[in-house]
């Protein structure tokens, strides 16, 4: 079996194993897995409205996945996508409510604010990694909590003690009447085009620019890159900044598209953490992220239908997602298994 | 409120919040000293909290006052089993340890909430009836079994001026247990052959392997210890602080314990000190509005203090913090 085929088989087998484990858990706890998965399917593709909402859910997943994948390609593990997304969400919503401008200026400005906020939140761990060799995983985890508490405090200040800001001005909104009419008034918005454009941007940066070449080189081998005359520290910081910018933009999707406001949060949104799953499943390639985001976005939104239609708690899908991550991460053992199976075939 | 009164009020509360953090941070020390990064502490704590509460609710009638303690054992076993998943993935399957830890976190909260909804048919459990006993004045005679026999005539520590009311009033036995465990962990890691082996597989697994130490087995044991301690910590948190289990019960305590471990420089006593300090920050962020001086500090600064301090500690502004050398790297025999 070729290497390429194995690389594709690992995610597929992981997804199947994840769904299988989910089915087993449903059986053991006394639910019908067939009913459960039918309800999941209907929750994703049931009617035009659910399809619209599923696509809406995929939008931030695309950007969160890109953020994680981009950092991974440069050899960095950005667990801080969650925090970068939260600050991006706040920044976009703040610009959305603070001023009223013509749409042509207001919308780009709000998006830019989210990008800058996310990039800044990625810059700190990047800088610490470059200057002090501090592991980015821990710093980004801590930055997540700082983001959560800081934005909550800021929301309280901005809203004068309330739990959420006002809704943003129409001029900053990504809302799409065209999509609303098409999908029976789902919240699907123009952000999906931005997210897909960013997929192309990531591909372009990685494959067609010197910067992308250097970033990947640093990801493969820092010493070799250094020896080849590349500025490793600069590349580490840039990788985190760009990754954070993607994540911040993901927050803007929620701020300007889905909710059109920002509310204080008791805990994380989970989008950033699911972004890790998206990136891993997509093998950190731009196109792979599209597939990963589509799968996890669909699962996540479709799961909301499971309690209504089959009486099964939505958390079953989270379990499935966790198991998928687990198997993708343990790709070594799946590869070993495939290799043994292939060898056996040849022996016969 | 005078300064002393503030201390009498805030110190017991800080220790109260620190107890679960200490245990979970110690779990992190064991795991990371053996070279296995354990981001999954949060998830292990969640499972501990869930199983602890569940056991307490189910068996409170049979065991009475002993229930919370037995619930700790149940939570310990459950989290230990979950930590085995992390061990298998990160040690045997050579998975990225951080990714595996993230999966553990997602899995734990999802599984726990799934079961809560299955069993209770709502988003959170009922409140427990049997809680840990609080000692308003603590002394040697309060030690279970031997205390009343040997020390019944010794006056309580809380009678000591100044430090008595500060450290020995409103004492939970769980806090005593947590602090004692920190010293036990220090002894085990630094004064026993087991501890030496544990540290050696985390620093240089190949050298340890050459000396005949079974790296895989040591790492498995270390991850299981971390699971057990995190489970106990989670169950203590749920049974002392919240009293029920829902989606927001643990809410980052595991990550704060991870921060305490790093801030404590991967040392058991350092981790304990950091956990106590973070406990102080937590109790100030909750009770600070009624304390002079602190009431002027915006709450958000107290909330983010532990995380900011951890970043500063890592950046080397507060002494050097050196992680175990082989931390996060799977050991593959024969690979240079």
Descriptive overview:
The complex is a heterodimer of chains A (348) and B (336). Chain A is mainly α and 348 residues long. Chain A is built from 16 helices and no strands. Chain A has helices at residues 3-28, 33-45, 48-73, 81-98, 103-132, 136-158, 177-182, 191-208, 210-220, 222-227, 232-258, 271-281, 286-302, 306-310, 315-329, 331-347. In chain A, helix 3 runs antiparallel to helix 11. Chain A is globular and about 75 Å long. Chain A starts with a helix and ends with a helix. The mean pLDDT of chain A is 92. Chain B is mainly α and 336 residues long. Chain B has a single domain, classed as ABC transporter involved in vitamin B12 uptake, BtuC, CATH 1.10.3470. The longest helix of chain B is centred in the first third of the chain and has 31 residues, at 3-33. The radius of gyration of chain B is 20 Å and the shape is globular. Chain B starts with a helix and ends in a 22-residue tail after the last helix. The model of chain B has no long low-confidence stretch (mean pLDDT 87). The chains are: A mainly alpha (348), B mainly alpha (336). Chain A: One of its GO terms (cellular component) is plasma membrane.
Provide a concise account of the structure shown.
Chain A is mostly helical.
Helix tally of chain A equals 16
CATH secondary-structure class of chain B: Mainly Alpha
Unreliable parts of chain A: none
Strand order, sheet with most strands of chain B = 1-2
Estimate nothing, just give the exact number of structural domains of chain A. Answer: 1
- Give the helix tally of chain B: 13
Q: What does the overall shape of chain B look like? A: globular
> What percent of the residues of chain A sit in helical stretches (DSSP H or I)?
over 70%
Largest sheet of chain A: none
How would you spell out the order of helices and strands of chain A? HHHHHHHHHHHHHHHH
Quick one: overall form of chain A? globular
Q: Could you name the CATH class of chain A?
A: Mainly Alpha
Task: Name the pair of protein chains with the most residues at their interface, and give those residue counts.
Answer: A-B, 44 and 47 residues
Helix-strand sequence of chain B: HHHHEHHEHHHHHHH
Give me the CATH architecture of chain A, please. Answer: Orthogonal Bundle
Terminal CA distance of chain B: 63 Å
Structural class of chain B, please? mainly alpha
Distance between the ends of chain A:
15 Å
State the total count of DSSP E strands of chain B: 2
- Annotated CATH topology of chain B: ABC transporter involved in vitamin B12 uptake, BtuC
Pfam families (chain A): BPD_transp_2
Keywords (chain A): Cell membrane, Membrane, Transmembrane, Transmembrane helix
GO cellular component, one term (chain A): plasma membrane
Membrane topology (chain A): Multi-pass membrane protein
């Amino acid at each position: 079996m070729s290497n390429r085929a194995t690389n594709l088989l690992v995610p597929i087998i992981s997804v199947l194993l994840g769904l299988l484990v989910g089915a087993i858990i449903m059986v053991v706890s006394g639910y019908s897995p067939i009913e459960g998965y039918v309800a999941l399917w209907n929750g994703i593709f049931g009617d035009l409205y659910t399809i619209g909402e599923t696509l809406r859910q995929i939008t931030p997943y695309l950007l969160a996945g890109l953020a994680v994948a981009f950092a991974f390609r440069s050899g960095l593990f950005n667990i801080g996508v969650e925090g970068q997304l939260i600050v991006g969400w706040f920044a976009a919503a703040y610009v959305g409510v603070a001023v009223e401008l013509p749409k042509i200026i207001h919308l780009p400005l709000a998006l830019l604010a989210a990008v800058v906020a996310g990039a800044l939140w990625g810059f700190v761990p990047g800088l610490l990694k470059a200057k002090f060799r501090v592991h980015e995983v821990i710093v980004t985890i801590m930055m997540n909590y700082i983001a959560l508490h800081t934005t909550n405090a800021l929301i309280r200040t901005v809203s004068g003690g309330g739990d959420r800001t006002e809704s943003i001005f129409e001029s900053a909104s990504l809302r799409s009447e065209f999509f609303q009419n098409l999908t029976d008034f789902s919240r699907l918005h123009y952000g999906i085009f931005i997210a897909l454009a960013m997929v192309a941007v990531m591909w372009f940066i990685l494959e067609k620019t010197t910067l992308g070449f250097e970033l990947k080189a640093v990801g493969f081998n820092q010493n070799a890159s250094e020896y080849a005359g590349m500025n490793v520290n600069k590349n580490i910081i840039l990788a985190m900044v760009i990754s954070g910018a993607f994540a911040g933009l993901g927050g803007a999707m929620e701020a300007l598209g889905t909710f059109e406001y920002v509310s204080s949060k008791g805990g994380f949104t989970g989008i950033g953490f699911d972004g890790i799953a998206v990136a891993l499943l997509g093998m950190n390639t731009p196109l792979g992220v599209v597939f990963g985001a589509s799968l996890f976005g669909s699962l996540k939104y479709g799961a909301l239908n499971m309690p209504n239609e089959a009486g099964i708690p939505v958390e079953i899908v989270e379990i499935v997602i966790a198991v998928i991550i687990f198997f993708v991460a343990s790709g070594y053992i799946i590869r070993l298994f495939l290799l043994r199976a292939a060898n056996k075939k040849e022996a016969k | 409120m005078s300064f002393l009164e503030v201390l009498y009020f805030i110190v017991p509360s800080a220790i109260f919040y620190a107890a679960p953090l200490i245990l979970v941070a110690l779990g992190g020390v064991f795991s990371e000293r053996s070279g296995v990064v354990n981001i999954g502490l949060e998830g292990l704590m969640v499972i501990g909290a869930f199983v602890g509460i569940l056991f307490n609710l189910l068996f409170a009638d049979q065991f009475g006052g002993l229930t919370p303690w037995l619930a700790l054992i149940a939570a310990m076993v459950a989290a230990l089993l979950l930590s085995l998943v992390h061990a298998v993935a990160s040690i045997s399957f050579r998975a990225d340890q951080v990714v595996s830890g993230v999966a553990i976190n997602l899995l734990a909260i999802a599984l726990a909430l799934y079961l809560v909804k299955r069993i209770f048919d709502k988003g959170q459990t009922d409140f427990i009836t049997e809680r840990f006993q609080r000692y308003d004045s603590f002394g040697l005679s309060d030690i279970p079994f031997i205390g009343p026999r040997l020390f019944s005539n010794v006056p309580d520590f809380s009678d000591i001026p100044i430090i008595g009311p500060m450290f020995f009033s409103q004492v939970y036995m769980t806090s005593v247990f947590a602090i004692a465990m920190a010293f036990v962990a220090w002894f085990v890691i630094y004064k026993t052959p087991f501890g030496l082996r544990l540290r050696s597989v985390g620093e240089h697994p190949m050298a340890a392997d050459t000396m005949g130490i079974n790296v895989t087995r040591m790492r498995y044991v270390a991850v299981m210890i971390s699971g057990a301690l995190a489970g106990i910590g989670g169950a203590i948190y749920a049974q002392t602080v919240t009293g029920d289990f829902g989606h927001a019960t643990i809410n980052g305590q595991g990550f704060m314990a991870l921060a305490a471990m790093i801030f404590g420089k991967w040392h058991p006593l350092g981790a304990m000190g950091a956990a106590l300090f973070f406990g102080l920050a937590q109790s100030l962020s909750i009770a600070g509005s009624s304390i002079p001086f602190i009431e002027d500090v915006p709450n958000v600064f107290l909330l983010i203090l532990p995380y900011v301090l951890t970043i500063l500690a890592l950046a080397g502004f507060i002494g050097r913090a050196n992680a175990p050398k082989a931390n996060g790297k799977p050991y593959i025999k024969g690979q240079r």
